[in-house]
What we know:
Blueprint: E1 12-16, H1 41-55, E2 58-61, E3 70-72, E4 85-88, E5 93-99, E6 103-109, E7 115-120, H2 122-126, H3 133-145, E8 151-155, E9 165-167, H4 168-175, E10 185-189, E11 192-195, H5 197-207, E12 212-215, H6 234-237, E13 243-249
Parallel strand pairs: 2-5, 3-4, 8-12
Antiparallel strand pairs: 1-13, 4-7, 5-13, 6-7, 6-8, 9-11, 10-11
Amino acid sequence: MLQPDWPAPTGVRSLCTTRVGGASAAPYDSLNLGDHVGDDPAAVRANRNLLEQATGVRPVFLQQVHGVDVVALSGDTPDGTQADGCVNTQPGVACTIMVADCLPVLFADSQGRAVAAAHAGWRGLAGEGGVGVLENTHSQFRAAAGLGGETLAWLGPCIGPDAFEVGDEVRAAFESQAPVSAALFRPHAPGKWLADLQGLARLRLTALGITRIYGNDGSDAWCTVGNPSRFFSHRRDRVSGRFAACIWLG
Length: 250
């Protein structure tokens, strides 16, 4: 598992799993946490139990739909709740985002009062009218954290800027909202571009006034596609497991 390297305050815990160390057989080998990808349900349960043992709290697994909805977690929030972002102020549960190329984003309040997590694929990141999953998650997170304190953000592994081929419609979706986004798309083929997903997320976070951003910097070590021994990648393998980023109070 990866331990995020960021100055999270005392009482805020976080981790990011890799594909290593679980019970699943190929092609989901081995620490697959997704129960919707065709893996043996018993293996997924065993893997989720391993994650719960590692965190010491209950990870809440959302039904992520590449949308912008955000849910406030409690001890009673059921797995499978439909949302792409979550916020928590209570001990005992972990905000948990599953990915296999999309970008997991963790949020912490510098005073340790609230945590949050978001699933940022390009659709949820772009949203509509400049309001996407990061904006919605941050809004609910700041309301939960209260006045004062700074927001810290950590970006986990995702598809890298040399692997994320997109069409004209994706570039247009971002550029229409923020012309500066154009710098994060490189021509690749007619009608095709290479997009910097973590760079687009950093742009949106910076626009929210968040300056303390850590983790994924777009370098090769963070690319899910380019590191098959460490990370699941749907773009690379088509049939793939899911790894997860988690954050909790404890």
